[in-house]
Amino acid sequence: MVLFVAGLAAQFLDAPAWVSSALYLACYATGGWEPAWQGLQVLRSRSLDVDLLMVVAAVGAAAIGQILDGALLIVIFAASGALEDAATKRTEDSVKGLLDLAPDQATRVDDDGTERAVDAQELRVGDVVIVRPAERVSADGVVIGGASDVDQSSVTGEPLPVGKSLHDDVFAGTLNGAGMLRVRVTKDPSQTVVARIVALVAEASATKAKTQLFIEKVEQRYSVGVVAATLALFAIPMAFGADLQSALLRAMTFMIVASPCAVVLATMPPLLSAIANAGRHGVLIKSAVAMEHLADTTVVAIDKTGTLTTGTPRLTAVVSLDERLDDDDIVQIAAAAERFSEHPLGRAVLAAAETRGPAIPQSDNFRAVPGRGVRADVDGQVVEVLSPRAFAAEEHPEVAALQSRGLTAVVVVTDGRPVGALGLEDTVRDHSGSAVQAIAALTSAAPILLTGDNRRAAARLAAQVGIDDVRADLLPDAKAAAVRELEADGHRVLFVGDGINDAPAMAAAHASIAMGRGGADLTLETADAVTVRDDLTTIPAVIALAQRARRVVIANLAIAATFIAALVAWDLFGHLPLPLGVAGHEGSTIIVAVNGLRLLSGRTWRKASAPAHGR
């Protein structure tokens, strides 16, 4: 650019002609050597590159005395290439910037209780670290002491700090609030959430969407066609007596404006920008192909336990079968028997008893009976908490009534006599209903519930979240068969799940998303995308983002094709000045690149996620 402006100044000041020519030729060398070298490398593999076409056009212009126009082409082409590279690099940099959030140093607590500053990369699974107020968390781990509010917007996109206490997960790079935390490291530094985001974006950058692959396949043939048309546009007028300069100038202008630079850049920048934006908000999309598949979704199939629900049961109903005992008595007796149980139902009963107030009685001789329940001695009585199948529940319609409501029932028995029944149900995730509504609005069909749970429990949950199509009692192969049936009916299925039993259905689906916190390793490997914080509102948000990325790709292709068609027609049927052709061609390339990068903005994600939050 400096050399070109200097050449213009030399011409304006009437300097000797050789001065401006030397400056322009220096402009050719500095701005054109790299694309020329890259183009020659591609040519060695018997392919044509748009960079080489631009350099040939510039040299052709200089050969007929249009050295100024050729220099202008080199300047604009080099400048647009630099802008494209800088803009596309923002996709990677916006995600890699997360790595800078993770501190270099960590305060590790040794076995003897000594605190020592170490390199964060030296931390290993099982190490205990201290995170003081206003420090950044140095590793992914679980809180084993202390409490605080943690700003984890850099990883999950949550706008407000999240309270963290015993057993809560924390992520490397998030910012601690006013409390102090003791954290046990659960992941190697190379496997933290931020490191996985960077790795997945790198993998996504290496993959190419079907649209991009098609464009690249067509590009080679198109480039050969452009060269052939350029030669014809030069040779035919010359055969009919046209002068060399005008024929060559028109041919060079045609080669420039017909080159498919903007078409080549129409696809990947929008898709990679959308992937980076989703990654910043807690959804890891593994490839550009996966992003295209998400945009194609016509129906979403959702697992129940661990996906629409948290997988953590809670006590919702108590029935007394003994008039001498009230509901609180029943819960306290059951909690005493369940005190040492590791079963989720036992923990739910214990949690409910703790919130009801009275002290839980002491128990002895605890014993878990697989397939039946638990047994313990409580205040001189043998107390059992049994599944209905392990007890003659049919004699008590109250138990059957709990089950008919879709609850999981257990029977409380003292000294062989039933005294009560408890009904428990899984906890529905926050915003499940609004997420289901948003998904239905984005796809051509309402979501479908596919679950291995019993039909009554599934129907109860479906009614709560607004799903009408319920398919229950499904084994893993039956889930996969249901997905294949939907695909056979013409649907593009997105399956959302978390467990190992969901992996076959994910593999059969057109696209799949796994719940990241509780998801099984096989599920996380199989899925096309992972939601880090198990937030169901990110499902419709990422579908909306993928659909917007597809619209941007289509718009970019339309912009590129319109510019090429208009400039080619102008050159063939009128007189298109070379500088104007250069400006139009390179301008269209910059427009499509910048248009794609708009998907990096936080505003884009907020618009995509707004319907799921009811705004």
Brief digest:
Keywords: ATP-binding, Cell membrane, Magnesium, Membrane, Metal-binding, Nucleotide-binding, Translocase, Transmembrane, Transmembrane helix. This protein has 615 residues and is α+β, with helices and mostly antiparallel strands.
What can you see in these coordinates?
The mean pLDDT is 81. This protein is elongated. Among the domains are: 2-94 and 202-269 and 548-609, no CATH class; 105-191, Calcium-transporting ATPase, cytoplasmic transduction domain A; 310-428, Calcium-transporting ATPase, cytoplasmic domain N, CATH 3.40.1110. The protein is an alpha+beta fold and 615 residues long. Helices cover 53% and strands 18% of the residues. It has 23 helices and 22 strands. The strands form 4 sheets. The chain has a 7-stranded mixed sheet, sandwiched between helices. Strands 2-1-3-9-4-7 form a 6-stranded antiparallel sheet, with no helix packed on it. Strands 12-17-16-15-14-13 form a 6-stranded antiparallel sheet, sandwiched between helices. Strand 1 (105-109) and strand 2 form a beta hairpin. One of its GO terms (molecular function) is ATP hydrolysis activity. Its main location: membrane. It is a multi-pass membrane protein. The chain crosses the membrane at residues 52-80, 222-242, 248-272, 552-570. Keywords: ATP-binding, Cell membrane, Magnesium, Membrane, Metal-binding, Nucleotide-binding, Translocase, Transmembrane, Transmembrane helix.
